């Protein structure tokens, strides 16, 4: 399993075929389509992009730790969002490599 650090906290992340199913079940949209949105971010779509980023991140953490806190509690635990942090590209790469090769 891979580890990422968000806001000073370390999390294990993992991805499998179930990740895509769980993402759709929890968030009501397709994980692959949402990941593709990250590649097309503009000033107008940055809020949606951040939502997708945290949704994908949450699913990958949940895959590594099925008893992880709720999505809402996870978001509450993060005090700052910096899109240039290494975890952003690590999460994106793992998800893209797992489903889009």
* Mean pLDDT over all positions: 90
Helix content: 55-70%
Q: Counting H and I runs of at least 4 residues, what is the number of helices?
A: 5
Give the low-pLDDT segments: none
Residues in β-strands, percent: 5-15%
How many domains? The number is: 1
C-alpha end-to-end distance:
18 Å
Rg (CA only):
13 Å
Structural class determined from secondary elements: mainly alpha
- Please give the number of β-strands: 2
The helix/strand series, from N terminus to C terminus, equals EEHHHHH
Main sheet characteristics: 2 strands, antiparallel
How would you briefly describe this protein structure?
Strands 1-2 form a two-stranded antiparallel ribbon. The protein is mainly α and 101 residues long.
Structure description:
The protein is mainly alpha-helical and 101 residues long. The protein has one domain. The protein has 5 helices and 2 strands, in the order E-E-H-H-H-H-H. A two-stranded antiparallel sheet has the order 1-2. Strand 1 and strand 2 form a beta hairpin. Helix 1 crosses helix 3, helix 2 packs across helix 3 and helix 3 crosses helix 5. The two termini are 18 Å apart. The mean pLDDT is 90.
